[in-house]
Amino acid sequence: MGSETTLKVCGEEFEDMLPKMTEKxxxxxxxxxxxxxxNLLMNNDKGVTNFESLKYx
Length: 57
Prior knowledge:
Layout lengths: L5 E4 L2 E4 L2 H24 L9 H6 L1
Antiparallel strand pairs: 1-2
């Protein structure tokens, strides 16, 4: 991999960690972690991610 991307927002510099995460976890591991992250944002009563669940979670 090796290529690192940085983004500057409001004078702050942010590094794109996705390539490092992919290298460490592999493709399948990255998908599993993404799935778990989206589940944390979901409204469990409705089974969807919506604006309210994003604000709450």
